[in-house]
Amino acid sequence: MTGSIDGMHTGTPGARGFVYGFSDDPGAADVLALCGGKGSGLMRMRGLGLPVPEGFVITTETCVSYIQTREMPEGLMDEVGENLRRVEEATGCGFGDPGNPLLVSVRSGAAVSMPGMMDTVLNLGLNSETARGLAERTGDERFARDCHRRFIQAFGEIVLKVPGHLFEEAIEAMKGERGVEADTELTSGDLEELRVGFEEIVVREAGTVVPEDPRGQLELAIGAVFDSWLGERAVAYRREYGIPDDLGTAVTVQRMVFGNMGDTSATGVAFTRNPATGEQGLFGEFLLNAQGEDVVAGIRTPRPLPEMEEVLPGAYRQFLETAERLEREYGDMQDMEFTIERDRLYMLQTRSGKRTGAAALKIARDMAADGLISQAEAVLRVEAGSLDGLLHPRIDPEAHLEVLARGLPASPGAATGSIVLTAGEAKERAEAGEAVLLLRRETNPDDVDGMISARGVLTALGGMTSHAAVVARGMGKPAVTGCNALKIDTSRGVVHLGGETFEVGDVLTVDGASGAVIRGDVPLVAPEPSEDFETVLRWADETRALGVRANADTPEDARRARELGAGGIGLCRTEHMFMEGERLRIMREMILSEGDEALAEALTKLEPMQVEDFEGILRAMDGLPVTVRLLDPPLHEFLPDSKDLAKVIAGREGRGEDAGEQRRQLRVAESLEERNPMLGLRGVRLGLLRPEVYLMQARAIARAARTVREEGRDPRVEIMIPLVAFASELRKMRTMIEAELAGEEIPVGTMIELPRACAVADKIAAEADFFSFGTNDLTQMVCGVSRDDAEEKFLAGYLNEGTLSFNPFQTIDRDGVGEFVKMAVDKGREANRGLKLGVCGEHGGDPKSVAFFHEAGLDYVSCSPFRVPGARLAAAHAALRQST
Ligand code: ADP
Ligand code: MG
Ligand code: MG
User: Going by CA atoms, what residue is nearest to atom 2 of ligand 1?
Assistant: First the structure.
């Protein structure tokens, strides 16, 4: 070991310093973390005796040190030199030796795969002398010149930061002059001319030359690969996938093998199975007489891999065997890169391949069926988040798209429809059979009807947990939110989008999986129900301890939730039931009623409607628990806005009409107005102070349960009281409710969504049959943050600047809110051993949060129906990870 940075290596058994040779024994070191995915893959392949060109890996820790100090750590280049000598010995070539030149590639590769995000330099070690030597040695001048011009090009672009298009344009110009199509048709003389031209470009653009000294080249290239960790592309990728910035990249230095030595040579990439569908069998492409990047760069069109069998049969067979072997060794689908030099196969990379959700399911199931992996491993192979997109129509991957703007991918799936700007219009046109997209600045509960009618939703404002996003996900409706390029002019019936104007009725498409807003009609593909999905999820169900229920407010949602594997309803909100048409009118009548008679009359109208609502849901959830939450929001949400009312009154008086009734309504509306309605007269407070609605709901629930049971079914309804802070609230409310149940035995529990409720959970538990954590409100209350304001005003900024690494409304804040949950669980269970515990906030569908709820020992989570499969899988993952 030649150097150590701040004790970084000390204590790591087997650590040798900055560098690991491919064949070195790493001891107990974490090879993946230190050598990156690419480096560790090469070492493993070598260990298996597969044909891998010699080389060595500079560790990620070295990169971290370089990034911190902006200097090559002392001793690094000595250690590189030693390892280079080992490669020279093994190959008989010399780095910089014109007699038999060794060329190397200098390759990036982090521990977490970030395909194509960082840089690689090939053919390093070439200069005028070694290029001549290479030509003589191989007897192929054209080949040597091709390598040389490639080297100048790559070194210029990656190390000296010359814009790459300048080189490409020079190649195009040369091909034009010569009247040839492909770069392979350029002659040896052409390539020499190109190289000279490239060197001129470098001098002009970078004000310097590519060094002739191979060691100087190597040091600069290593520094450039380290730097590429901080490149724009790489940083953006890490943000997107939540990869920490402080991992650093390893650098692999490896003897070059040449796929550009004529028609017995080739280069290619392949997956062991189809990464889009999971179908078995090699899937890939190759190019004859080409080097590395040519395949992906699109310079020539690569050929499908099976055609290689004809042109290079020996190497093809060997590659097939190698691919199978690697898949068995890794127990996972592999993504491989290879080169064939004069009929000899070399493996240059292998890693577990990225895949779609559908492919992940099929591969996991097939591999378990073939005994390659266990059922538990198969379950772990499928990411919970990857299931979301499977249940919705998707944009045909082959389709050509004109993306007009982008917003947040708030609710997956794609939808096409004509633009409407109001909920009313959405309803009207949808009822007339038209497919519509609802475009709003932002949405509120008044828009829910319109959202139901629309195929998809697009908003200008709002985040991933805005009203529009939450409601759309709940409905399984595609939505793009926070599309800042969208400007809506409702009065003129036009919208501005990406510098263009569209009118109501014009057709757009939104892709809720990517956040894209697309012009016109786009071909969609339907979600294919798959046996793989059913099978893997069944395995997950056998594994998990946590129950998964759904948040559902209608029989239709309940049915869908059940199909998706929900074990009941964890949250049935009743407020939506009063929001639409006729019911809203009666609700208003009731709220505005003065005198018991009018009140009783309104309630008599509402009660049978509620009974019917509950019957439908209980039938759909026959035999499974259904938790009905009594009315939660403040009453003024059901009334017209007081400002609107005031305007109507002013208008009437202006026309000399009598505005008495409106004035009375205005008085009531104003009396119900609150400075901070979130913390005002709502939930159980309303239930205690204006008990009419709660008692009516309790009666309706009991009647519905009785009716459904008399039909021979097994209704299992539970009544849930929201916003309890004091045990006395629950005690009183429960007594009042139980008096209305007409002998029906119905469990009564409470939401736990206030910090005080967590602190006195033992006392509340004495009055409750169950707790359901309302983690949305609990997060707001514990953090002192209003969600709607927060997402717009500062959460996005916090996330961008890294003050917060996650959105606490998406993923539960373990350290803060999580502690409150744990406190309530402990106190609650201690006071009431039979207490059932669940979660009904949006967090119930978030895989990381599900893991927390599992660890906290809850009985179930509840989430929107479309997130149920993901939650089932996440719950299984949590159980499996805990047991290992
Ligand atoms: P990326 O991470 O972008 O895939 P790589 O380091 O894998 O970058 O390099 C890209 C391509 O360069 C490889 O797929 C391979 O074809 C080629 N390449 C890299 N190293 C060598 C080598 N030692 N010999 C021949 N080709 C190489
Ligand atoms: Mg690669
Ligand atoms: Mg709440």
Answer: 116
